[in-house]
Amino acid sequence: MRKATATIPVTVIGGFLGAGKTTFVNHLLATGGPRTAVLVNDFGEINVDATLIKGHDGTTMTLTNGCICCSIGTSFIETMCEVLDAEVPFERIVIEASGVGDPWKIAEIALIEPTLRLDRVIVLADASRIAALIDDARVGATVRSQFERCDVVLLSKTDLVDAAALGAASAAVLGLRPSLRIVATTRNSLPTLDAPAKASTFRADSPAASDHSATFRSFAYRRDGAFDRGRIAGAVAALPPELLRLKGSCRLDGEDAPQVFQMVEGVWSLSPADQPDTAGIVLVGVGTADLPEPAVLDAILDRALAAGAAA
Length: 311
Ligand SMILES: Nc1nc2c(ncn2[C@@H]2O[C@H](COP(=O)(O)OP(=O)(O)OP(=O)(O)O)[C@@H](O)[C@H]2O)c(=O)[nH]1
Prior knowledge:
Residues 216-304 form the CobW C-terminal domain. This is CobW family GTP-binding protein. InterPro entries: CobW-likC_sf, CobW-like_C, CobW/HypB/UreG_nucleotide-bd, P-loop_NTPase, Zinc-reg_GTPase_activator. It comes from Rhodopseudomonas telluris. By secondary structure, the protein is of the alpha/beta class. The protein has two domains: 8-212, P-loop containing nucleotide triphosphate hydrolases (Rossmann fold); 215-302, Hypothetical Protein Yjia, Chain: A,domain 2, CATH 3.30.1220.10. It contains nine helices and twelve strands. It has helices at residues 21-30, 48-52, 74-84, 103-112, 130-135, 140-146, 163-176, 229-238, 294-302, and strands at residues 8-15, 36-41, 59-63, 92-96, 116-126, 152-156, 181-184, 216-223, 243-250, 259-264, 267-272, 281-288. The strands form two sheets. Strands 3-2-4-1-5-6-7 form a seven-stranded parallel β-sheet, with helices on both faces. Strand 2 (36-41), helix 2 (48-52) and strand 3 form a beta-alpha-beta unit. The longest helix has 14 residues, at 163-176. Guanosine-5'-triphosphate (GTP) binds at residues 15, 17-23, 49, 99, 156-157, 159-160, 186-187, 245, 247, 262, 264, 269.
């Protein structure tokens, strides 16, 4: 990597599947600030997040080939080199970790590379789900590890919970690390990175290497056709609970504008997509290791296809 005269701050954004990481990254980009390189890493084979990051002044680069916290592979190093060697230098790097990733493993890169400076590790926690996720037998260990070394927790989606549930969510997070700084947010009240970073004390030892492909499986659904809006709810209700997250883009029968499809634990939404060239349906999902075979999931989602759509 090129010898730079100044170090570039790196902010790592982590948090479990659907916690609101991309929403936060888009907020950071929308609120201005220095020229930013955004690196996004999805767990699935298709990096949907890169397409969900709104256009901005800097650049968005995708990190594929699985979860970068499991193996900091050559693609990550090459991408970092590209960012550091950019003709117009970047003033900030924001890395969105995958929803099953350990953000600290990514942050360690910034501690090793002399041209980078670790700004902070921010973990998003969905206020409506975090207490249950922390105790979940299948995903709890992954969720808990994401909080081990972060600097601040954004307790997201507080618009979805009442005061008692908000208290339970923050108590669950503080139960992991009583000294954690928690900021309650909604997508309309997210902070920026401008406030000075909170000083943190980093432990020198590394966490044990993990391989999230043993705990989680990804799934991709592609069709040339369109969904029938009226059939989506039924198909989503029929999806197994092991499928924790589904997102991507689709077309709806009889409608021109492409849509972003989001599903977090059975709660789904459609919103107009920014990218005008969405063809057909491309969805990626992540579930626990006992996720049913792709053919089963395909068959369920096929039920939402408009009559005559290609299967
Ligand atoms: N009600 C509510 N929904 C939110 C809020 N923030 C994000 N969402 C929704 O939650 C869903 C997931 O948000 P994302 O930002 O894509 O979550 P993510 O952590 O990037 O998801 P993965 O990358 O798949 O792990 C989307 O449908 C968002 O619109 C919020 O403050 N309130």
